[in-house]
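User: We ran a pulldown and think these components assemble together. Before we commit to crystallization trials, I'd like a predicted model of the whole complex to look at. Sequences follow.
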Amino acid sequence: MFVQGFGEVLTDALTVNPALADLPAASSILDTSNFTFQAVAFGKDAGGFVQHSHVIYSIQYVNGNSASGASSYDLGLLNIVNYASDAPSGASSYIPSGTYLKFLSTYDSVPNYPSVGDTRLERGSTLNANLSGYQYASALPDLGHYANPALDSQLSSIWNKVGGFAPSGAATTYWYQLYDKDVSLINFGNVSSFFNGNQLMDKDGYLTISPLSVAALPPPITTDFTNGSIIVASLTDSRTPSEGRMILKSSFYKGDAVSMAAFGGVKHVGVYCLDLKEMLNSSLIPPYGWDALNNIRKYKLVAKVTILDDAFYNRDGNGEAGIGKWLTDSNVTISLDFDFK
Amino acid sequence: MIKSLTSQLGIKGHLTVHKVVDGQEELVYDEDNVIVSGFGWALAHLYGKVGSDTITDYQIDRVKLGVSGASALQVSTTVDLSGPLSSQAEYVGAGDSNLAVVSGFRWANDVATTTGEWYAKIPFSKVTKVDDRTVRYTIFIDEDSCNNLRTDANLNEIGLFIKNPKANATETSVLAAYRYFSNIRKTSDFALVFRWTISFG
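Assistant: Here's a predicted model for the assembly, 542 residues in total across the polymer chains.
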């Protein structure tokens, strides 16, 4: 749904002074990129930010022994405990409903119902109380959605507890371990992030959108996600601007898909424009280039989608581990269909 | 089912028409209006990144007045006025009209017309940001304007147009909002003020 922030962006677009075109220092304010979709973020239920792989296990505890203070934030591994591992086709998958059921008395897994007045994805706190003992826990911002701690100097060492995305690195550097409900290790692999490997997401979890739509790309038209999420406005697609429609696609490759599933998946998707007014008030003058490491862009939520079920549903099949399947040749693509008419 | 932008955000238009005689305003019309599909069509080109790269091309900067309005046209599929003023003379006559009129083409159901049509420009000074989600357009038809209409014609319809969403060499506009109103026989005895407010939620 579109939220009131979109109305604010439209109002700004309709009332920006055309005379700025004659001022060289300010004319770039009239570029459409200051008013179009520029980022996507992903979120879930507030309760989920202290559940799933956000929980601090010790390896000893996971293996059935009592903890002996040796958590070390799970030794830098992304540990996943599948409490529903005996579900059909669930042995090597991560089934969030197993966690919902096991912690039913303390875990409200329902995301906030969306409101047109929302300015963030989840209204409740998305901080992780499990990290209160960590030296830099206060560095974690309460965003309302998943952060990307890999790019935060104070949080990168606990990326596996903050969530939702891993750093990017060699095959043996960033590892996940999937345990069954009896805490036996059953699956593992590399969760190196495609988003971080291509510098597509800033530390606050804003995934940039490719500056060109698929329809505007030179042929051959592809669905190349190496520049971020993509706008599909192709005339060959049924969702065309001539019909008043378009599609925004975000794709999670390999490690990003695994880590999203491990942290409880996606129940909110947010679409953002630049908060032009806020940036101008901060003396930031356009053009606002994309820089994942030092992102000066400030964003305004303009649309959101909320679902009750996890978008990262996975099950074993065809002899392959459900969660591990994403590490080979598969990916998860979230498509948002916009109707402006 | 996907709900449309106008229903999701609750986009509303509201039009008032005042007669102005000797500086005194008299309200003659006060109703909501219809946001038509051309508005969404233009937004889809903006957000689909297949239209103009300049935001001012998506601004509402012109208006048409007409003489054959009908309530049946107050639907989202309307793409033009029923009987728009069809010449520069109908807008500005031979007097000292303050209206600035321009000729251009128009988008209708994703097809551009190729015959020039006449629009009255809305000066930017008459575009008001009422609050964070509300814009008001004030269209002033002075005493010397729109008095030279075809025989026995009354003004009774108005449409707001977006400037040139696809940056065509000849400005090609698209209807964004439409309203039919009760007949007004325009004369040089009075001016008209249309105040058109669009709220985005």
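Chain B has one domain: 5-200. That may be worth checking against your pulldown data before setting up trials.

User: Thanks, that helps.
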